[in-house]
Amino acid sequence: MKNLENKVAIVTGGNSGIGYAAAAELTAKGAKVIVTGRNKEALAKAETELNVTGIVADQSDLKSIDNLVDQVRAKFGKIDIVFLNAGIASFAPIDSASEEHYDSIMNVNVKGAFFTVQKLLPILNDGGSIIFNTSVNAHLGMPNSSVYASSKAAVLSLNKVFAVELAARKIRVNAVSPGPVETPIYGKLGLEKEEVEGFGALLGEKILLKRFAQASEIAKTVGFLASDDASFITGSEIVVDGGLTVNAVV
User: Fold this and answer.
1) N- or C-end of the chain: fewer Cβ atoms within 10 A?
2) pTM above 0.85, yes or no
3) 20 has catalytic annotation
């Protein structure tokens, strides 16, 4: 169903994984989609494959966000949907986590997300939709994930406060919190193929549906929240984790 026709959407970090799948979903629903990322070649590939507009942008750099806003304003004028998907996931135990590790995650996942919303507000139409990509890690006590989990918990707080602050403009603000998803991110964590497979098998046993999600399944939730089908939903978090967080301990 093309229920997003005449809408303009931005997907940050839209050149791979969940962002790529979300861009495909929003495009299929009729939206004009802009995807951002730091890799020019990956963006060009997404442009060709998805029929979207790619703009090079680094969410950790406020000047880069300003440039993104200027380019979007010049080409599209106004926007209707923002999916804040860009983020960093890396892990370290508390006794060895460095300041660089902390700052690299917080600068992208929290500071970057905050200022991306702030700077896009002047070109976001009243009645628009803002969607954060968070994580079930915000609720779990997974070892070595303290900084990453904290960043996603912070974004969930932003989600609630922004929903209140932007209600007067009828802008809905929501979050989607995926569980484990089959995306390239696991290959970027410095793990060997066997380690990733072992981790996946162990985690899969704790997921009620006994598998990782496909990025397209998360994208469908994003498409729902972006549309008028979710017209009475704001300040909410939708957990898409196959039952991981409700699985009984015993």
Assistant:
1) C
2) yes
3) no
3-state secondary structure the chain: CCCCCCCEEEECCCCCHHHHHHHHHHHHCCCEEEEEECCHHHHHHHHHHHCCEEEECCCCCHHHHHHHHHHHHHHHCCEEEEEECCCCCCCCCCCCCCHHHHHHHHHHHHHHHHHHHHHHHHHEEEEEEEEEECCHHHCCCCCCCHHHHHHHHHHHHHHHHHHHHCHHHCCEEEEEEECCEECHHHHHCCCCHHHHHHHHHHHHHHCCCCCCEEHHHHHHHHHHHHCHHHCCCCCCEEEECCCHHHCCCC
Among residues 36, 28, 29, which one has the least CA distance to residue 10? 36
Which residue out of 20, 102, 148, 186 is catalytically annotated?
A: 148
Residue positions counted in the chain:
250
241: Cα within 13 Å, side-chain hemisphere: 24
Looking at the predicted structure, is the pLDDT value of residue 103 above 60?
Answer: yes
Q: Residues 4-58: pLDDT tens digits?
A: 999 999 999 999 999 999 999 999 999 999 999 999 999 999 999 999 999 999 9
Judge whether residue 153 has pLDDT over 80: yes
